[in-house]
Amino acid sequence: MATISTALRHFKEPTKDQLTQIYFSIPPAPQTIGAPVNPQDEVEKMDINAVLSLGIAGEEDSYAGKLYIMPPYLAFASLDRKSVRFTIPLCTIRRVERLNARAGIYALSLATWHGVKIIVQLTSLRPTADLFCSLLRDALKVELQRGQMKAVKPFVKTCYSEVIAAAGSTGPTENEREDGSLINERESGSDSDAVYHGGLGLKYKFPGDAKKLREASKVKLWTSYLQTHGRNLTLLRYPQCTRLVQVGLPNRLRGEMWETLSGSIYLRFANPGYYEKLLVENAGTVTTSTEEIEKDLHRSLPEYAGYQHEDGINSLRRVLQAYSFKNPELGYCQAMNILAAAILIYMSEEQAFWLLEVLCDRLLPGYYAPSMHGTLLDQRVFESLVQRCLPMIHDHFQEVDVQLSVASLPWFLSLFINSMPMVFAFRIVDCFFCMGPKVLFQVGFKAILKINGEKLLKIQDDGGFLNLMREYFSNLGESAHPDSSDTRARAITRFQELLLVSFREFSVITDEMIQSERRKYRGEIIHSIESFSRRSAVRNLKTLGRFTKEQAGLIYDALYRAMCMAPPPPAAPPPPTLVNSGDGGAERIETRIGLKTFKIFLSEIATWARDEKIVMNGFQQRIDRDVAEHEFIDRLFYFWDTSCRGALSLQDLVLGLDGVMFNDLMENIEWFFNIHDKNKDGFLTKDEVLTLSETFLFIFRFEVGDAYLGAVSRFMTNAFEYGDTLLPERGESGPNGEPLSPQTISPNQPYLNLATFRMVVLADEVLESFYETDLSASFKLELMPDLDLPALPANGLLGDIWSTIATDTNKKMFHAFTDEIGKTIGKHQVIHRPSIGRYTTLEEPKARESLVTPAMRHSTSKSSLRESSSTSPTLGSSSTTTLASAKSTSSTTLLPSDTGNTSTSTSETSLLSTSTSIGSSGGPHSPPPPPASSISPSTSPSVPRIVQVANAALMERTPFAIDDAKDDEDESEDDFDDADEDLDDDDQVMDEVDAFLEAHDSGLTDADRQVAKDLLRAEPVK
Amino acid sequence: MADTAAGSVDKSVQVKLVLLGEAAVGKSSVVSRFVSNEFQPNKEPTIGAAFLTQKCRLEDRVLRYEIWDTAGQERFHSLAPMYYRNAQAAVVVYDVTKASSLEKAKSWVKELQRQANPNIVIALAGNKIDLVQLSGSSSTGQTASESEDEADDATATPGETTTSGVDPESLRQVPREEAQAYATEAGLLFFETSAKTGEGIVEIFTEIAKKIPIEHILAAARGTGRPGAAGGRAGASGQESSVNLDGDANKPKDACNC
Lengths: 1022, 258
What we know:
The complex is a heterodimer.
Chain A (H helix, E strand, L loop, with lengths): L15 H8 L22 E9 L8 E8 L2 E6 L6 E5 L3 E8 L5 E7 L4 E6 L3 H20 L2 H9 L3 H8 L17 H6 L10 H4 L5 H4 L1 H15 L6 E2 L1 H9 L3 H12 L1 H7 L3 H8 L6 H9 L13 H17 L9 H9 L4 H15 L9 H17 L1 H10 L4 H9 L8 H14 L2 H13 L1 H7 L3 H13 L12 H5 L2 H12 L5 H29 L9 H17 L26 E2 L1 H11 L4 E7 L4 E7 L3 H10 L7 E2 H12 L3 H12 L6 E3 H14 L7 H20 L23 E4 H9 L2 H13 L18 H10 L2 H17 L4 E4 L13 H4 L4 H17 L8 H15 L2 H4 L3 H5 L2 H12 L14 H4 L2 H14 L5 H5 L5 H4 L5 H16 L10 H10 L3 E2 L2
Antiparallel strand pairs in A: 1-2, 1-7, 2-3, 3-4, 4-8, 5-6, 5-16, 6-7, 9-12, 10-11, 10-15, 13-14
Helix pairs in contact in A: 4-8, 9-20, 9-48, 10-16, 10-20, 11-16, 13-14, 14-15, 14-16, 15-16, 17-18, 17-19, 17-26, 20-21, 21-25, 26-27, 27-28, 31-34, 31-35, 32-33, 33-34, 39-40
Chain B lengths: L11 E10 L5 H10 L12 E10 L2 E10 L9 H5 L4 E7 L3 H17 L5 E7 L14 H14 L1 H8 L11 H11 L2 E4 L8 H11 L2 H11 L13 H11 L10
Parallel strand pairs in B: 1-3, 1-4, 4-5, 5-6
Antiparallel strand pairs in B: 2-3
Helix pairs in contact in B: 8-9
Protein name (chain B): GTP-binding protein ypt5
Protein name (chain A): TBC-domain-containing protein
Organism (chain A): Pluteus cervinus
């Protein structure tokens, strides 16, 4: 763990806009790498209430929902957000007409590339509808200009669904096996029609028994769905679509449906040729990731035939490498190889690449990141959901000290692919891409439940738990009701039951719930990751010097804060050296900071490396802290860079500080001397003496009075005096008290040695005390309040409001604002805080004198240190800490007389007064506080319900759902009774499909429905 | 040695053992060689951790190893504490053909010594020695041929290369002496192993078994009466076994009749 990352600090909750985009799987704007984005082309986004009907009478219900225009996409979601939705690129819309309907009804007819007609009735007010239409028109125009319309045809050809829909064939064609793989690979290569993308399965067969999987029936159902509801880019997702997915996708169509359902198809569409280009540009590049990938290539689904051949391995290598080039920060994480290997069975490399992108970026955010924070977070969320829904099991696990994640972590990381037989895992993956990450939670839940409380409540340790789960997963193919007299019931496998019950009973686990749980635990997880890496960074130090572990931890904290503010370039492996380092092995990658970050780091530790101004303006007193710039700091940087890399590691910093913080008088003098002795010959040149004096002036720059100034000037006089005296060849010229003229001694000549320097220093009381104690003491390992770094996402409501108000810019604006007022009323006052602050003897205005004496500062720092150790390592992350320490600061350092203001405003901390003033002045930057209900109601009302459901399920076996569902809807079976032979199969598929039937609320009244129906017959307006 | 002693369940002492080490050094292979005496060349990387058990008879005692085989990739590191907490033994594996893997092993040892159970028994295993041995000498008499190899190393290497194409010993990046010296210094058991040939595998677990303070574990299990307390993860049958062993403790010679 030699690398330190601050990436987690910069996490931002997605905005509402982004959430909508995510929901519709619309690629974020910067993702359109291929096409240059012209700001003028940007068309506004808008959403509008609408009723959607499919242009074929009787085929589907009409649904009320929201229509979104998010150029270059048009999207729709029904009110319940799950029954009906679509996301279609604008360039696939071939025709838009306004329909001539009843008065007061505003309806559009859209024809897509695939000849599917959609009717949307805009139910908002007339002006809103007009605005929407004009936006739509503009956006379509832009797409036309970009030439995107032409891109559709070649792209669509790469999709297998076109072949299916065109042929309309049911059985396998001559060149296909029953499972959909090709009988003769070469033939398809030469076949000009077969340009569609496909995976290794085409050549090496698909896993599972095609007959058992009822491929033919599934293909038939999909064919008819795709013909009427559009496909690939223009797919409309009606309830039937989701149900067909839940039954399991047919092999041949699986890859394409995955990319359509997950939305990775839009990325592939928007970035043609990107994948190949990426590979070409990075050909031959070797990184840590490529090395790690190499290790795992032969260890990814090794039992699958395709990965026993070079072409399978090569595909896998290219896809994983391409992703690591695309996202070097993430690189490669084990488990990605398993995912990639799995999806490559069904999709082409390019398809797999983009799907991987969507997986890592959107569907499983942070799962594979170097810190794996997403994985840890979701494990925590899972645990908390178990605690809420299955308290009995949770309590038992607590009691026997079993951690849920020992079993569930691999489920989430590899989407169950190596936890259960592949055929079943793929069906979960189908649902995952269709319905999102909540599927993992639902299935995980069900899996746990299914083991049935009784068994789980008997386990005594992790091992027992794992064995139980393993046994359950390996028997998924067996009948769920082997003893049932009903043949149908006997035919139901445990897996079918698992899936069904997962979705039925745990449909209460929604994306929103997961989101809000994630919000709740994110801070905790980040904190534990940070403290883990802090611990291991300190542990991995080769030496702590004279520091204790705690002090080294504080150095780490300062480094971490500095890195938050000025992130160093990503850690890179050290340049190859000819000489092998002493420890015999290749060196590990280490985080090193450059000069810029170092300056901030030092300003955290050394009092003289920061400019602190105490600003009082009648409203508030605050400390403005800036990083100081001086040659001395640069010098120190290079002085500590003992391995001459131009960058410092944590170890360098620890050793560097060790070299000064424990020094006594003599050691300090020597240390100071050495820093200024550039060529290390034991002599300072005359120039170096001058530089050294400048360093003094820099360090003493804010000292009150002229004691220090006097000391420096005495030092210079004495130094030159002694220096001249001791010059061997000029010794006889006699000490005349005047520095010799520069011409006589070359500036580079050795001039002052250490002994002389020491003598000169010790001649002065002020300098002596500086070296005796003050220099070492000016380095302080403590936490400073009032840090401007992105705070940890705070828990709860207060944190949310706080983080929205207390942004950097707001704070700055507020400061500037109050400063201005302070100036006008004559209360503005700025005082530099001294770095040493020992000699304040000379007469100065009273106000300054009483500012910060060392003793007072000491007490402040102590208190802040104490607090910090008891709460979090970084101050400013929790508002109470800041408040308390800031209060103590103000109580010790405030001058009651200086502002004459009421005590309330002065005793407030600067931070607090910021927020209160902003709030009271009703500034434009303070958003209305989100209703207190925003977090709790989304989760809490459902809790009792989940618990109820869960407990019910726990206590009694649920009757199998097909039995109930059978009567719900039988008419759809009628469509498929043509082929006698397939009838039974089709029946079974349909049974399964029906089992997934849920109540879909179209959100319409009968009258509305009638209107929608009428629209199907309406004529376009001229 | 490795023996599933049926019927002796009650008498077994449970030992939690964790495997750590860099990715692809062969942790899972070591375990599967020990547990099922199998070797599978292309094993899928472990995600999170795998869990296996194996019984082991040592003199008059039966040990039941509960083995946690962890993921090796650096980013899984932060999960490791979940698996090594309360472990009584650890096997830290490195790859003799990869110098960096020993460095990683050292850092694991350091972490274990500071963060894990204070009485943890740690073994260091340099795996894949089959790669640095002459082919044909791998199945039998490894110890002899190995020491020969090493004796030859300094002198006869140039001559050897002509016969077998590439001298396997040249693949070795971690000299046995270096690792041995480190292990001695850090107080670890040390072995060079090959999961492929089986060499040295059983020895690791036997030596660990000898070194484990079994009485301590039993006492802890007895003392708390509840598995899960510090060092007392005697596990499922903890209570039963403690009762039985209690009785046996007086005349240990009779304890094992199997």
